[in-house]
Amino acid sequence: RRQRQMCIRDRYVLAACCGAGALGSVVFNQFVGSIPSEAWYTLFAIMGTLHIIAAVVLWKMVRPESPETK
């Protein structure tokens, strides 16, 4: 039962991350047409950095499973 509760809670975290990513892509697509061509390199560097940060955060959130001993 405890494992099931943890899985349900983790599912909500995953859903929140996916929702935030979807919202970010909508905002990005809305404003992408107004970005000057000189700013693309800066934008690429920012987005690349944010992807690395997101990967580290998700990596730290995942806990390795350990079998319960009784």
Structure report:
With 70 residues, the protein is mainly α. The chain has helices spanning 2-31, 40-61. The longest helix is centred in the first third of the chain and has 30 residues, at 2-31. It starts with a helix and ends in a 9-residue tail after the last helix.
Helix content: over 70%
Give the number of helices: 2
Structural class: mainly alpha
Q: Percent of residues in beta strands?
A: under 5%
Mean pLDDT, nearest integer? 76
Please give a quick description of this structure.
The protein has helices at 2-31, 40-61. The chain is an all-alpha fold and 70 residues long.
Which terms summarize this structure?
single chain; 70 residues; mainly alpha; 0% strand; elongated
In terms of topology, how is this protein built?
Layout: H1 2-31, H2 40-61
